[in-house]
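Hi all, long-time lurker, first post. I run a small reading group and we've been trying to get comfortable going from sequence to structure in the token notation. Rather than ask abstract questions, I figured I'd post a concrete chain and ask someone more experienced to write out its structure so we can walk through it together at our next meeting. Sequence below, copied exactly:
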Amino acid sequence: MAQKREKPNILITGTPGTGKTTTASALAEATSLRHINVGDLVKEKNLHDGWDEEFDCYVINEDLVCDELEDLMEEGGNIVDHHGCDFFPERWFDRIVVLQTDNSVLYDRLTKRGYTGKKLSNNIECEIFQVLLEEAKDSYREDIVVALRSDCIDDIHRNVSTLTDWVRSWSSLS
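-- Answer (accepted) --
Happy to help. Here is the structure in token form:
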């Protein structure tokens, strides 16, 4: 498949608390790619169908999000940061990064964020059963999906370095 974009698009996904936004921000800075935090975009552009009281979050309207991102994604040069991935068109991404965190580390991160009850337990279970890795493998070509450990700041630095090298090698192929 011939590359049509000058710069690649990367999706960084994973359970909340795995370091997606931190990693995406650092990678954007290192590569000059555009960081798109889908959660922020949903709030800013009202791309939701209301508030879910049980999970204390917006109910994302996936069609509105995809419509909003279409032109940017076709242009290339984006790092999309979101905890889900199965609703994005496969053609948009050249690399899917699934961040994974040890459950005890993740538990501490989420409780510090104020997660409790069903929201906390569902996210921990999601990580235990590697739901997002399976979702990525089911939604995209397996050769573009990578799982990276994200337990500490050293992991994040290593991941950003690895992904920066990948972006540079991708760009040299186009």
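A couple of things your group might point at:
Residues 10-41+77-168 form a domain with the Rossmann fold fold (CATH 3.40.50.300).
The radius of gyration is 16 Å.
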